Amino acid sequence: NFVRSQAKRFRPNDLQTTFKDVAGMEHAKRELEEVVDFLKDPAKFQRLGAEIPKGVLLAGPPGTGKTLLARAVAGEAGVPFFSINGSEFIQMFVGVGASRVRDMFRTAKENSPCILFIDEIDAVGRVRGAGVGGGHDEREQTLNQILSEMDGFQANEAVIVVAATNRPDVLDPALLRPGRFDRHVSVDRPSRLGRVGILKVHVRKVPLGENVNLEDIAGSTIGFSGADLKNLVNEAALAAARDGKSQVDRIDFETARDKIMMGVAREEVLNA
Ligand code: ATP
């Protein structure tokens, strides 16, 4: 089935990502603990008639680990993870958005318990009627289909829909109503301590020179997201490899940081 094949699917045995891979974000992990518990044993909750959230919204700037976190929830619970990007619903062919949504939810229900992850939900979930001019029917139909699928979940269908956005302010309030994305978890740029933790995760397989001090690096990368820090470690390793070294030294991190900061500055100029 063409449509079904579009939703990327990760079977439980591919799911090596767990909370261990997510540095810091203790608050977010705590909030999601309940979802993990539920996915591990939905019947335990269903027997007691306990209402479990159907939708969780992860809100925060790009690269702060929203996708990583959603994947880690699936990994912790040992359930399949299906993911799709909100923009994919509208991109390909006009008229298929709503049917793709139907198909995606059907696949998820067939594989329940599972996580259905919708990245960049704002691409379909912007407040209705806010566009300039007309031509937004496609998006509205897609959004309406998502809402009706979520409303239609049966008590024995253990699908948790996790959505991510860096623009929670533009979302249609209908998405945020009780029974839909009514749990909100905010994911912020890491603090200095958070950056140390993220660096530690990403240097696990990197041989470091003795002069490398992760606290210092964290101190000099204010404003970096998790994705920026991952990139930093990789750029530093590339710099070391280019120089034929067998370990990554402080100077390599400095070179990498300068390179990334130049990129960030350029982006800021472009966005100004
Ligand atoms: P976007 O909004 O751009 O989709 P995102 O918030 O979903 O970004 P991810 O794609 O999850 O961010 O993060 C990119 C990469 O950055 C992750 O795969 C991971 O390697 C790294 N990363 C981000 N946050 C963390 C973290 N807290 N701990 C460890 N790694 C992190």
Give a structural overview:
By secondary structure, this protein is α/β, with parallel strands linked by helices. It has helices at 2-6, 26-40, 42-47, 66-77, 88-91, 97-110, 122-125, 137-151, 192-202, 214-219, 226-242, 250-271; strands at residues 8-10, 55-59, 81-85, 114-119, 159-165, 183-186. A six-stranded mixed beta sheet has the order 1-3-4-5-2-6, sandwiched between helices. Helix 6 packs parallel to helix 8 and helix 9 (192-202) packs across helix 11. The longest helix has 22 residues, at 250-271. The chain is globular, with a radius of gyration of 21 Å. Homohexamer. ATP binds at residues 60-67. Acts as a processive, ATP-dependent zinc metallopeptidase for both cytoplasmic and membrane proteins. Plays a role in the quality control of integral membrane proteins. This is ATP-dependent zinc metalloprotease FtsH.
